[in-house]
Amino acid sequence: MNDSFFRKIESKTGVPMEEVFALANAIQFADFKDERQVRKIIQKVSQLANKDVPQHVEDELVNSIIQSGKGLNLNDINHMLGGK
Questions:
Q1: Labelling 26: which of 39, 55, 71, 73 has CA 20 to 30 A away?
Q2: Distance of CA 84 to the CA centre of its chain
Q3: Is the pTM of this model over 0.85?
């Protein structure tokens, strides 16, 4: 991919691509049985999406992810946060 492609994404979303790559890397290597790691990922996604996640919603997401034990991708998290 070329640099201008990423610059267009940055200008449309307002999110630096470095942060998106860092989040993707964190998700790729996360232990989804570790509550602290799961909470950090949810909080980072909500921060990047500029969406407030109430504590009870975060708790539900964390419990659901830990119980399933399977990995997530950005689409899964976006969907959980009410994205399309």
A1: 55
A2: 14
A3: no
Q: What does the block give as tokens for 59?
A: 């708790």
CA quadruple 4, 76, 67, 40: dihedral, nearest 10: 40
The residues, ordered by sequence, that sit 6+ positions from 39 with a Cβ below 8 Å of its Cβ are: 58, 62
Place of tokens 């991708």: 73
Of 18, 24, 21, 16, the closest CA to residue 41 belongs to 24
Distance CA 12, CA 26 (A): 23
Token pair listed for 84: 């399309």
| Cβ–Cβ under 8 Å, residues 40 and 47 | no
Question: Around Cβ 3, how many Cβ atoms within 10 Å?
Answer: 8
pLDDT in tens, 24-46: 788 888 888 999 999 998 898 88
Give me 79's structure tokens: 């969907």
